Amino acid sequence: MKEYRWELHLHTLESSRCARSRAADMVEAYHALGFEGIVVTDHFVNGNSRAPAVAPWKTRIDGFLAGYRAARRAGEACGLRVLLGWEYYFEGGDFLTYGLDEDFLYAHEHLADLWDLADYVRLVREAGGCVVQAHPFRTAWYMPPDVRQRWDVVDALEVYNGSHAPGKRDWDERALALARRHRLPGIAGSDAHSLSMVNTGVMAFPSSISTGADLVDAIRQGRGRLLRLAKDF
């Protein structure tokens, strides 16, 4: 049966301070691997973003979108589908957001300043998107030690993150157990920040994904198959 591979967690040098490869190079790599598409999930303006921290909202969003727009142009040239997403920061946790467009971002100037994650998720859902907590059990020097697992408000959990070192795979195992316990869908993502990290944790869908709405439906219904380093998960 034909499957359609997608990368759901990817950063670009143009928009994420922690990324090391340009959007066009990432697109070329995934196209060469036979993927149908990728979602560019650069850090949002309230996280590790290259967008200016102090500037008019439009200027900040323009900066945030630089990587996505570069990837989209490259994707149009080679035939790889490129969708917009982002990684939203809240109280030490990261939340992958899917299914929305540029207009949503320009229209919500308060988006980076919300006091309640539930308010953010509600806004996203009302606009037709979904929210997935990324790497819910990761610990790192840049993260507070008491990051909460917000299974109670999100649509799904990232249960496999390709950037985790072999010795840290218990983070993923705990995320998978949490998702199963609360009957939440799980996704995989490479969390690729450079060419060396591509295709380390991806999704294989049974039907083609053409739009953000298609992706949201597939995530919510748990239709994708999780792949890690080309092996079933």
Can you put this structure into words, describing what you see?
This protein is of the alpha/beta class and about 230 residues long. It has a single domain, classed as Metal-dependent hydrolases (TIM Barrel). It has 7 helices and 10 strands. The chain has helices spanning about 25-30, 55-65, 65-80, 100-105, 115-125, 170-180, 210-220, and strands at about 5, 35-40, 80-90, 95-100, 130-135, 155-160, 185-190, 200-205, 225-230, 230. It has a 10-stranded mixed β-sheet with strand order 7-6-5-4-3-2-1-8-9-10. Strand 3 and strand 4 form a beta hairpin. Helix 1 packs parallel to helix 3. The chain is globular and about 50 Å long. The chain starts with a strand and ends with a strand. About 45% of the residues are buried. The model has no long low-confidence stretch (mean pLDDT about 95). InterPro entries: PHP_dom, PHP_domain, Pol/histidinol_Pase-like. One of its GO terms (molecular function) is 5'-3' RNA exonuclease activity. This is PHP domain-containing protein.
- In terms of DSSP E residues, the strand content is 15-25%
Question: What's the shape?
Answer: globular
Mean pLDDT metric = 95
Low-confidence stretches: none
Distance between the termini: 18 Å
Please compute the radius of gyration using only Cα atoms.
16 Å
**Any guess at the CATH architecture?**
Alpha-Beta Barrel
Main beta-sheet strand count, sense and barrel state = 10 strands, mixed
Name the CATH class.
Answer: Alpha Beta
